[in-house]
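Email to the structure team, subject: DMT family transporter model.

Hi all, the expression group asked for a predicted structure before they design truncation constructs. Nothing fancy, just the tokens so they can compare against earlier work. One-line instruction: predict DMT family transporter, return tokens.
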Amino acid sequence: MGLILLILFWGSAFPIIKITLQFMSPFIIALIRVTVGGTLLFLVVRKLAYGVKESISALLNIGIFLVLLNLGIQYSANPGLASTLIYTQPVFVLILSRLVLKERINLLQVLGIVLAFTGVIASVGLSNFDLGSVIALLGGLTWAVGTIYYRVYLRDRDVLALNAYMSLFSGLFLAPVSLVEPRFTPNLEGIGLALLVSVTAQALGFILWFNAVKSIGPVRASTIVLLVPVSSYLFSYLLLGEIPTLEEAVGSAVTLFGIFLTFIPGINTRKLS
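Reply from the structure team: attached below.
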């Protein structure tokens, strides 16, 4: 039940952010999200895991990442497509693990990488690779760099206390950055939607995610949340009337299948070393 809620919360966040962008800038949305979400997380765990390394992780995994996520949604025609491109993160993690950490990958995972990027090209098209697509992919890459950084320096930290701190610290980063575009229209709908994303995607989302990782393990949990882009396409249709093109649907399916393959540690395949 928890994972189902998580998929619904994270998937619906993309079109909800698209609607909220009518009332405020992507920077203001991110600032509200980390401030409210981080405060709620702190009230749950009653402690913070803080420090220099934690602050760097906050910028990579939350502050910069959320700005790129919101900008990717703003400049993408369909929030579902932006979601798919953001969720190329595991592919970038695998590539960086090989290049930076010198970890070995198997042939099936290499096939997954190729399929994932083939699906991206099929979804967007070389001639239609717009600003939103580029920003969303950069979001996935930034998230991946943050994941590697976390694995190297912070994997022994209390994850909820760490995420509470990272959310709140990201607010200190986003407050001045939001001055780049301080657009904010006082409107109950816009404020309500921003608060909704803060509660569901940020606070409850992280709690449900780490509960899932604890109960079924990170690989199975990560595999299941690949349904988030599917959920995002569904909510984009329900809330915005956005129907994916055939290219977007097929390309996204190929991308997600490729990402799924990257989670497979090896099935009697020769590893690349």
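The chain is about 75% helix and 0% strand. The chain has one domain: 1-263. Ping us if the truncation boundaries need rechecking.
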